[in-house]
Amino acid sequence: MKRYFPILVFPILMCFIACRSGQNQIPKYEPVDKKVFDEIAAMDKTFFDAYNNCDLEKQASIYADNIEFFHDKGGLMQSKSELIEATKKNICGKVSRQLIEGSIEVYPINGYGAVEIGFHKFFNNQEPDAESKPSKFIIIWKNENGTWKIAKVVSLH
After folding, report:
1. Rounded mean pLDDT for each run of 10 residues along the chain, 157 residues in total
2. CB–CB of 110/116 below 8 Å?
């Protein structure tokens, strides 16, 4: 019996491992609500077109008045005017953002809005040889009477 033990146990063990490995895989993202996904993807594009073209007025119109911007290196900013001023000083004419195609996930938040999660890259023309690595972002969008506003941002680099 000892001689046949490995022959009997090995297939059972392999079957067990194969069955368990499927339980830990991350499922492919599918939008929960395609309409909300499309609206947020369009707002992402609108906002970052304004960001890349230094349209500070457009950016300000998309930020909620009580914006909270969490940056892993810069900390928390809670002033819309200070955020716009920092963008004017540090971003305009220097930095551009590129969304990593296909990386956006959008999840509706009942009675509030939606959360957007994705990856993007930033390019600084002051450092043309610097490598731009994809970084994660999270944006909490608030729907105010049919108008989407950025309420919170978590920017990770």
Report:
1. 49 50 77 98 98 98 98 95 97 97 97 98 92 96 97 96
2. no
Within 73-147, residue ranges assigned H as helices are 80-90
**CB count in 10 Å sphere of residue 46:** 16
Domain extent listing, the chain = 35-131+140-155
Task: Answer whether 134's CB lies under 8 Å from 141's CB.
Answer: no
Centre a 10 Å sphere on the Cβ of residue 30 and count the other Cβ atoms it contains. Answer: 8
**Side chain identity, residue 119:** F
pTM of the model as a whole: 0.83
Q: What's 35-131+140-155's CATH class?
A: alpha beta
